[in-house]
Amino acid sequence: MKRIIAILLINVVVLQAHAQTEWTNVDSLFGKLPPSVHVYKTTRELDGKPNIAYYVEADLKDRRLIFSSDTTRNRRLTPDEFYRKNSKPVVVVNCTFFSFATHQNLNTVIKEGKIVSRDIYSRKRADSATYVHSFGSAIGITRQRNADVAWVYAEDTKKKILALQRPVTAFTDSHSLYKPGINAVNIVDSGAKKWKMRTAVGGGPVLLQEGEIKITNNEELKFAGKAIHDKHPRSGMGYTKNNKLIILVIEGRNKGVAEGATLLQEAQLFKELGCWEALNLDGGGSSCMLVNGRETIYPSDKKQRPVPAVFMIEAL
After folding, report:
1. Which of the 8 DSSP states describes residue 74?
2. What are the two backbone dihedrals, phi and then psi, of residue 277, each rounded to the nearest 5 degrees?
3. Are 163 and 152 in contact (CB under 8 A)?
4. How far apart (Å, rounded) are the C-alpha atoms in residues 177 and 184?
5. What is the bridge-based pairing of β-strands 91-94 and 309-315?
6. What is the pLDDT of residues 80-104, one digit of tens each?
7. The pTM is what?
8. 304 backbone φψ class: left, alpha, beta (φ>0; ψ -120 to 50)
């Protein structure tokens, strides 16, 4: 009898761990929204830990919506400053990783069809004469309002951007820069095609591919060691096969209230929301999403962190 009870209890725990997250529509908390934009919130625990998360769902095909980005040069702005700078868009969310020392974006940003920032593909190994080359990921939206997540390469911001629909394995050599045809991987010969996006923002790693969880941190080298299993505030974007853009933010580092999520938990949430592809964005103290200028999650720095780029949804 005791054994049967124990088995039943184990089954209950397993079912709870894999239970579908419950989301509540909270549009009314954020003022007047376009009919095709909605905001949802959950406080359901993640693996027994307190959790607060929000996501925005927007119809990619609604021509009354403009999906855009904005960047700064040699400085950073808070999401609220970006909000006021851009005539108060409906949604503002942080996106790219960046250098605290130089304020430089470390990922791709495309604004109105032009590359305004590109990934940093090469970095020197500590105490070594070798260099590691890795290719980052980005989410983009075409002029026809189709979304795509891909691994991207642009030699500089004046040339076309190429994209692969599969990750490229990171590699090491003695060259300080990645140059197609010289280094171990020639992305041009690896099936790369022109990536004609009106708007795009980079981050990484990719979380979902073809509706399944496939976290490509080993290829993109965004986080070292077991860091993908750490709980932190998270920001991410994905899209569904029925043309819904999903922007997700997860509060964290708020002990006893909201303790954050691992990359696997973030990926699981995107999958539950029906995303076909999804991408992690810069998290931690950078995670912040404004809807009509109002904060969703509470920033873990206790105030909004200045960032060099944001993704926005504007309404006509």
Report:
1. S
2. -140, 150
3. yes
4. 12
5. antiparallel
6. 999 999 999 999 999 999 999 999 9
7. 0.93
8. beta
